[in-house]
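Appendix B. Extra example for self-study. Work through it before the problem class; the solution is given directly after the inputs so you can check yourself.
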Amino acid sequence: MTASVSTALLTDRYELTMLDAALHDGTASRRCVFDVFARRLPGGRRFGVVAGTGRLLSLLRDFRFGDDELRFLRDERVVDAQTLRFLEGYRFTGSIHGYREGELYFPGSPLLTIEGTFAEAVILETLALSVLNYDSAVAAAAARMSIAAGDRPLAEMGSRRTGEWSAVAAARAAFIAGFGATSNLEAGRRWGIPTMGTAAHSWTLLHDTEADAFAAQLRALGDQTTLLIDTYDIETGVATAIEVAGTRLGGVRIDSGDLPIVAAQVRRQLDALGARGTRITVTSDLDEFAIAALAASPVDAYGVGTALATGSGSPTAGLVYKLVARQDAGGAWIPVAKTSTAKASQGGRKTAFRVVEDGIAREELIVVAEGFEHRETPAPHASARALQVPLVIHGEIDAAAEGRSGVRAAREHHARVRAELPLTALALSRSEPALETRYQSG
Amino acid sequence: MTASVSTALLTDRYELTMLDAALHDGTASRRCVFDVFARRLPGGRRFGVVAGTGRLLSLLRDFRFGDDELRFLRDERVVDAQTLRFLEGYRFTGSIHGYREGELYFPGSPLLTIEGTFAEAVILETLALSVLNYDSAVAAAAARMSIAAGDRPLAEMGSRRTGEWSAVAAARAAFIAGFGATSNLEAGRRWGIPTMGTAAHSWTLLHDTEADAFAAQLRALGDQTTLLIDTYDIETGVATAIEVAGTRLGGVRIDSGDLPIVAAQVRRQLDALGARGTRITVTSDLDEFAIAALAASPVDAYGVGTALATGSGSPTAGLVYKLVARQDAGGAWIPVAKTSTAKASQGGRKTAFRVVEDGIAREELIVVAEGFEHRETPAPHASARALQVPLVIHGEIDAAAEGRSGVRAAREHHARVRAELPLTALALSRSEPALETRYQSG
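Solution. Structure tokens for the complete assembly:
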């Protein structure tokens, strides 16, 4: 669909520097386990939402060092000739297990576990974190908005507020976490997400009168379209809309003003004009709190831009990529962890479960294994659901987790697991994570 | 260098819907002027920094509707057959004038002025805003950090905290606004930005001892490398570093702890060990305020990640793309502006000047023209510097503003114009814009 672009240089230089040094001292071939996890949830969130996994798998396919990438690394003396030869043939041949896309997570949850040689696994750090940190930040914000909106539909309209390719990722993450549509056409093409949108203020300003603009839009798009009624005076806009469209008009959109008051006025005016079926969409600087504050207002749909695409105050999920276990020179496995202040992490290979009792999630249970080869860790009890699935096995990428089918599966999975959350998890205020993470050695 | 990917669907659906309706009613061919500007500066910033212009020009070259894009639009019934034919041949044939990349801006400053038919100009809205909103948000944060850091070098290390392609843009924007290097290799390849980086905690954890890790790094990279000394205990880490490297060690990096205290301790320890020339780099969750708070500490260089790539609390610049003038059916020019509450804008074509007296910027002066064809508006007085330059003339893109040379020119321009700011503009606290924007009819 689009030309494949190498993703190999979407990488911090120190990864290649370490690779270079490791090829020199022989540690490059030590088998390693890296975890991707969050030390804490940003913004006092009650839960995190995994997003980006399917995108990461696609980008991993394109993580190849071609002539141009190698030339740059040689010319800039980033690595030496031995390392260039290693990179020339680079394919990730290790394995990745992780949480399903759309799954919830909590502090310490191993969203991804990457196993391979140090050489092949260390250089994926930046790509994995860039994708998951942005997409999961958007998904967490989207999930909160979706909770606040209840049954009312949400459309993602934030493309203009974030980098042009992040915009596509944002639309995808929002869809996974409960949004119904996006304004972003590339997200429609690439991921099969429903797209929407009718007209901007420039449409009205282009015409000699608001009535001309509405009439032209109705001729082109039919009377089920949505007219933007706040370019000049809202009351006049509503009157003109119904005069031109008739009472069967599909919808009006309000993009400014004090929304609870304005929405109520517009509803009253529409009803008085006989347009009882005309829907009201609001789109002005919404976030989860503004959406919640409109719960009692006569609003039929929300369009969310800035707050969605920038993670509503927490633009990055704070995920890290840490070495948690490795072989020593003799091949024995050693759990490892940084011990410096405030950034300590939990070493060892982990198997994660969500304990669900009577349909309600109670705990994130992480079993830290003694052995380190990946194997099935039996659920510690009947109510514990295993959270990790194979994503890459010996270099073979799970194609079902990529592409459009992966997005749809992630959206369904998210809806299913969000329904298990205790009620306290649905509150919007800043607080502790809704589930506690408990470690158990196994 | 990389395959060219169509950017045409990095677009909100409503732009194509409006195009479709405009081709129906004949308004598509009305000539229009759109401005990109900020209504206010986010986060109480004193000034904004234009970044992304050169990237936008490159992306504009790839704004082409190929078979795959057209098929999607047809299959999804986004537009009709007439519009598909228009898009098939689409090339932007209008003109774009704008602020130089790296220039400062203030509320109302016309960062870009796009002139063309409604049809060709309306569909560039999302792409232009995505690029400029993200890049300018990062550049504004970077400029503040650069002011706080004074003469000490700054490195951009935020790739993992933002979308994978936004990361490349962030490195570029930070370089323009005063950073000296980036960890992002793609930014090095694509934009010629110096790259840096040595080792992560995983490097130390990979080895059986910290001393083994340091020794291997020194063998591979020489003794001018920077050793990360906080994986376990910092005091031991410093002692081990000097023991292994000798007193000529290039640098140490501290990535955790209470930095003013830790940096002072590490400096004392290095000096006591005789390593008086060993530099200290700090990299733990820095932003402009943390950097300012380290001004009196013995720190030699800063690495900034999260706060840089997420705009330090203001992840988007809040720029909008608004129709400000258009022709009517008879070809006469009409200034237009939305008048709804709080989002009102200033209609008419604008020529922007910075009034600089005795080398100090005093005012942003915007002359709103009566005529609308682009022409040279003479500077209203000798101390007013014209801010707009031609970027695209009748579809011809200014190649000098693109690519590596554009980045370097933007960085130099930024340093030059930042030096003109009054001292009050350099404070980090939330306040009003440093210069007032004054409109004058001309």
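Self-check: Chain B has two domains: 13-138+316-441, 146-309. If your reasoning did not lead you there, revisit section 3.
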